[in-house]
Amino acid sequence: MSSNNASGSDIPEGFSPDLWTAWMELRKECYPDLIEGVNPSYGYRPTLGAGIAFDVLFGICVIGHLIQLIRFRQWTSGLMMVGAMTEAIGWAGRTWSAKCPYNNNAFLMQITTLIIAPTFFAAALYVLLGMLIRRLGRQTSIMSAKWYAIVFCSCDVISLVIQAVGGGMASTESGREGGDTKPGTHTMVAGIVFQLFTMTVFAVLVLDFLRRVYSLAKGRRDGQGGLTRNMKLTLLALFVSFVMIYIRSVYRTVELAQGWSGYLITHEGYFIGLDATLMVISAGIFLVLDPAVLLRHEMTKVTTHEGRNEKQDTATGNDSEGQGGVRSE
């Protein structure tokens, strides 16, 4: 049962109008001290030092990838930049919560951004594999580079929308005393599980790509491999980033499956170690091993080759991606 206050909002059973008004004001304003017996939405007060540190780290990633985007205009840099920016916004929300632990706007700010940010990192990996396929030739993959972008980025968008909707539903309900967060939580879990499935399929296709590359290179008379040193470094970065995102997705799936009062979600150390740190590595590895830098000469060769053969391919109806082959440098 509930009653209505003067403003017409529902007052849950057990709350007096004055107590309910105080509770709602607490979630709107910045009350810096923890109240005994009243837990913040996190189940703890977020650490201020962690918030500042990760904001700085993700800020560095944003600036680094923005510079590379301006210099080389590659989709990978743009997607990494957007993902890092989304992470930075989320950690700004957690920094805000460290000062105002009961503020609901700060809680909403971080939960809706940090749940979706890795989706942009994953999209960068899908685009990156397509770049390698274009360089080495259509026969190195079961799908063309164009279809990698279409299929996997479409799946990423679907996952993004599902997680965002679920995050919005859950965070809205968490702002209400006695609100039911389960539908939103289940929706978020569904989005992450779908992302895990997509990434698992992607991992299988990456392995198939490597098998084809080395199989074709082994058949060359000169015995030289098809991957240049820079391509191997790019694949190393892709592998590291992929593993970080995958581990994080498994963690968030288990965390949310336990519910908003579960053990993982109410202990900040797990979130810092299995989400924030992994995402810094996922984005930061591409500042050290940036495909926009490592592959710039290879992609220039592809562009030049495609420009010379564009008219011929159009006339014959051939796929220009299929004309390439495993190369040695």
Q: Helix amount, in percent?
A: over 70%
Shape summary: elongated
User: How confident overall, as mean pLDDT?
Assistant: 83
Strand content: under 5%
Counting DSSP E segments of at least 2 residues, the number of strands comes to 2
Rg is 24 Å
Question: Order of strands across the widest beta sheet?
Answer: 1-2
Summarize the helix and strand pattern as letters.
EEHHHHHHHHHHH
Number of helices: 11
Structural commentary:
The chain is elongated. About 6% of the residues have low confidence. With 329 residues, the chain is mainly alpha-helical. The protein starts with a strand and ends in a 13-residue tail after the last helix. The chain has a two-stranded antiparallel ribbon. Helices cover 71% and strands 2% of the residues. The longest helix has 37 residues. Strand 1 and strand 2 form a beta hairpin.
In summary, what is this structure?
The protein is mainly α and 329 residues long. The protein has helices at 17-28, 48-72, 75-99, 104-114, 117-136, 145-174, 182-218, 229-257, 268-288, 291-294, 296-316; strands spanning 2-4, 10-12. The radius of gyration is 24 Å and the shape is elongated.
Describe the secondary structure blueprint for this structure:
Blueprint: E1 2-4, E2 10-12, H1 17-28, H2 48-72, H3 75-99, H4 104-114, H5 117-136, H6 145-174, H7 182-218, H8 229-257, H9 268-288, H10 291-294, H11 296-316
Antiparallel strand pairs: 1-2
